[in-house]
Write a structure and sequence with these properties.
The chain is mainly β and about 120 residues long. Helices cover about 0% and strands about 60% of the residues. It is built from no helices and eleven strands. The chain is globular, with a radius of gyration of 14 Å.
Length: about 120
Amino acid sequence: QVQLVDSGGGLVQAGGSLRLSCVASGSIFTITVMGWYRQAPGKQRELVADMTSVGGSTNYADFVKGRFTISRDNAKNTVYLQMNSLKPEDTAVYYCYADTLYGMDYWGKGTLVTVSS
């Protein structure tokens, strides 16, 4: 079992920045990929960015390339999402997720990001 606690959301003006955090606990040695999805009102959940546990390869959705950066601190079992140049269309609930060796995936409860114009 893996537990994820995501945080860092809030209200920010367009052009501003936020940093989301996701702390993993439990069977973290089974995690193969960690990252972030988001879900805006009335829309499907979509991938934002993720990072592999081995090698640290990153993957970004086209709509965040150049603005968002995913990173990790292995000592703190934490993955971050630095979000810069935020736009009103980035408003969504952001969910941390983790894929594991056994095909299970785990989710945080989500953190709300609101970008005002």
